[in-house]
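Troubleshooting log. The previous structure file for this entry was overwritten by mistake, so regenerating from the original sequence record. Sequence copied from the archived sheet and checked twice against the printout by T.R.
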Amino acid sequence: MVVFAGQGDARRSMSLLWRADGPKEQGWRPGPGPRPGLSVDAIVTAAIAVADEDGMAALSMRAVGERLGRTAMALYTYVPGKSELLDLMYDAVHAELPAKYEETGDWRAGLTAWARDRLEFHLRHPWALQVSQARPVLGPHEYAGLDTLVRLLDATGLEARLLRRLVGTLTHFVRGCAGTVAEARQAAAATGEPDEEWWFARSALLGEVAPDFAERYPSLVAMETASTPQPPAPASAAAPGEESVPYLEREARETFDVGLGVLLDGIEAAIGRAEQP
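Regenerated output below.
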């Protein structure tokens, strides 16, 4: 399920995101009006809680209103609709991310910390991964996150044209890994079958249904044999401490660690090339 941001009224959405209209947009109104206690911020906080707990599919103005003890109609005084609310939610959660990292001169350590923080951020709010990057929200917290990443990349000394592409590369890499981990966590609950049981039941049948599997896919088999010679064991046979971590999540986190290292190696190589006369 992909959701596109910025589908509401452009001026209204941008004014709410940047609080351009002052206190009125935050819920303060003089004289007669809605009873106190409701504001844009309160609505956004409640909406984030709904999405965190029940997913994007459960998000509606009615669900948010019920969480606040109000009707959906009461929310429209503050937020025009679900599209604008999604923009506000997406930008608001980005305020959790660190605004700066310790400036030690070690760009690699800084980018590693940034990537790990981003991964855990997406796992706290997996619904945010469904918001397409094709059309960014353009809110203040989203921009702050980009500014932080650019500042970390500036320490590499690479030219701006390359840094611009590295921002996209690192962002998409982290989002991709986070998406796999998030789906791994959801799979068992959605299907009623743990990762290990699913993989074991099906991979054990490959020799029966495809006896020529090794001949058909020799490179894949060679790689798997050298790296993971046995299919994942059932959950009952998992090592101590691993029972609670889905197999696919463990795999995705290892992919994240290795992939991030390779990406940083690539940046280091680019720095070396740039420094050559």
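Residues 23-32 have pLDDT under 50 and may be disordered. Archived copy saved in two places this time.
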